[in-house]
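Case study 2.
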Amino acid sequence: MKMKMRLDRFLANLGIGSRREVVSLIKKGKVTINGQKVTATDFKVDPEKDLIQVEGVYVQVKPQGFYYKFYKPKGCITSKADKDLTVMEFLPKDLPGLNRIFPVGRLDKDTEGLLIFTDDGLLAHRILHPKWKLSKTYQVLIDKEITEESLKKIEEGVNLSDGKTLPCKVFCLDKTRKFLQIEVIEGRYHLIKRMFGRLGYKVVGLKRTAIGPIELGDLKPSEIVPLSFEEIQSLKKALGLLTG
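Prediction:
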């Protein structure tokens, strides 16, 4: 019979963070057990039975192994349950692992592009955690021609209400200087819209084309396909999850 473990030890052993980082997450109320917030670091958990979430993402000891990439169309919510149209409603009813997978992170209702679906809680947590600095690439359409000065400011960091953004890569995709590609390593709320807005531009179109080494490729809106073995390996390598 498997013994229960202290919550802080379990999360540290799982690789969520160092013991100190894990303790901080628990004390800040970022961890829930079976839907209930837990702030006691010595709380005992049963890894085989308890449903454990860290910052809203399920974590588990042994991932079941479902990994998909999905082209989220505009007009739907990135959620498993909502009164509005959700991404789940576009998934085939016979999709393997449908009752276990969840979307990793969010895209706004009016944003389209790449989403990863999985039941691997640790991988999902690392995709979202800033510690791993996994890049996200977007195509951006703005309302007017961008200047060289603005491009330089975006690359060096833009001062927002919640702090200066980290340096990123950005360049024009056509001669109009309104269609751009940007690569960021942050996941702040409405980050790209706020960056351009701060410099006087309005984002009128936004599509995510890559998450780390995983690319949207030639997927069509609402299409979902399993990640290849090579894609899974490259993603896990980028997130420090390959062993041996």
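Residues 87 and 203 are 22 Å apart (CA to CA).
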